Structure formats: structure tokens, C-alpha cells
Amino acid sequence: MPTSVQILKTKMVTHNVRHYRVEKPKNFRFGPGQATEVSLDKDGWRDEKRPFTFTSLPDEPTLEFTIKSYRDHPGMTNALWGCEAGDHLLLRDAWGTIQYKGVGTFIAGGAGVTPFIAILRQLNAHGGLRGNRLIVSNQTEADIILCDEFEAMDGLETLWTVTNDPKSKLLQQRIDIDFLKAHIADFNQHFYLCGPDAMVKDLRDALQQLGADVSSVTWEK
Q1: Of 91, 119, 139, which residue sits at a domain end?
Q2: How far is 64 from 54, CA to CA, in rounded Å?
Q3: Are residues 78 and 29 in the same domain?
Q4: CATH of the domain at 51
Q5: Which is the most buried residue in 25, 29, 94, 148, by most CB within 10 A?
Q6: For residue 51, what are the β-bridge partners?
Q7: 115 and 213 inside one domain
Q8: Which phi and psi angles does 150 have, rounded to 5°?
Q9: What domain range is 7 assigned to?
Q10: Number of compact structural domains in the chain
């Protein structure tokens, strides 16, 4: 049964990404990296469900989502962009298989970084980031989500690459098998993947070819 919660605050993150701070239902539980199916509590939208990851920490008194809106597509994320404090969302139970299993490399494509936000924030809060690495690909530098926050995390190594921003001084490479060979020295570690389905599949195959143990690769199944 979905629970209606009020949006308490919205905050811009990038030109098309916002934080949504919402009420936390009593006794609601989730783990870092997990998600829930969300609907708008408005006529015509209550049966439209989309999965969004919690980017708040489990012990915080409210919930946060960090959501990219596709403004050129007449779907839920576009409608969500028009929501403000006082509007309501419908939440369901938490689910998801992306959980922290140990020191490793997190690889994301675009908004696929969102399941990693709460995981890395929790590790940062407890001084457990040392040795972890975050690699993210975006189309442009302006699309990077929480760049400053990630770079300020003590112990986290970050690597940004863009695929459609020739003016950027960042790496201009797709994350593929050649990228992995060039930028990862040790494949005997944990890997965490999130992004478009095709990207995740290609990276899983590439990591196996490069010697990574399939059991050490975590993605949303």
C-alpha cells in the first residue's frame, strides 16, 4: 500500500537534476543504495510508478531523492520538475541489490551515480572511504551530479569523463574495455556498476574479460 508524503524542500543540483526532501513515514527503513517506486499523488499520476534511489542516509529524519528530469519527454520526471514544497508523492517499500560489499571501484553513467550517493555519504560519515574510487561518465561537464561533494570526500578518488563536451578539460573518453585497461590497475577488487542497461552489460562483460571475478561485480538486477 503506497504512503503519501509531503515534499518539504526542493534544491537544484544541475540544470536538470534536483534534490527532493520529503517526509519520512514512521518506521520506514531502507539501506544505502536502495530505491522505492514513486508516484505523484495527483490525479492521473497515482498509477505511474518510477524507481528512484534514496540519497539520504537511513538515520536522517527525512528522506531525500536526487532525480534527473527529462524535460523533453512528457513523462513522470518532467511532471516531477513542476512539483514544489507542499506537493505530495506516493512511496512504496524499499528494494534494490546495490549494497556496499567492500572497498572497490564505483562506475556510473550519468544519473546512474545516484545509487552510490548514500553509500559513499555513509562511508564518508564513518571514515571508511579510503581505497574506494568513483568513475563517472557524462555527456557534458555541466551534467556531473555532486562533483564538488564527491571531490571533498576524504579518501575517495574521483575520475570524471565526458563524451560530448569538446571544450571541457576533463577526459574525453567512453568507459569501455580500453578505458578500463588504461585506468584500472587491479581487477581483483569489488566493482559497483550503474547506468544505462547496455552500458552495464558491456562493462560486466569487459570486467570479466579483464579478470574480475563475476561475484565481485554488483549491479541492479
Answers
A1: 91
A2: 6
A3: yes
A4: 2.40.30.10
A5: 94
A6: 37
A7: yes
A8: -65, -45
A9: 3-91
A10: 2
Q: What is the pLDDT of residue 73?
A: 81
Annotate 164-192 with DSSP letters as a single string: S-TT-SSB----SHHHHHHH-S--SSEEE
Say what the pLDDT of residue 14 is.
97
On the CB side of 103, CA atoms within 13 Å amount to: 11
User: What contacts 45, CB < 8 A, 6 or more positions away?
Assistant: 39, 76, 79
199 in any annotated domain: yes
pLDDT at 98: 94
pLDDT for position 127: 94
Q: Are 46 and 40 spatial neighbours (Cβ–Cβ below 8 Å)?
A: yes
Task: Give the pLDDT score at 57.
Answer: 97
Residues 6+ apart with CB under 8 A from 188: 211, 212, 213
- This prediction's pTM: 0.96
* Positions of the chain with pLDDT lower than 50, given as ranges: none
| Measured distance CA(46)–CA(39) in Å, rounded | 5
E strands, the chain, in order: 3-14, 17-22, 35-40, 50-53, 63-68, 88-91, 104-109, 133-138, 157-162, 190-194, 217-218
Q: How many CB atoms lie within 10 A of CB 76?
A: 19
Supply the CATH number for residue 169's domain: 3.40.50.80
What is the predicted pLDDT for the residue at 71? Answer: 81
The C-alpha atoms of residue 123 and residue 189 are separated, in whole angstroms, by 17
Check: CB of residue 90 under 8 Å from CB of residue 3: yes
Residues ≥6 apart with Cβ < 8 Å to 57: 32, 118, 121, 122, 125
C-alpha closest to that of 53 among 28, 74, 30: 30
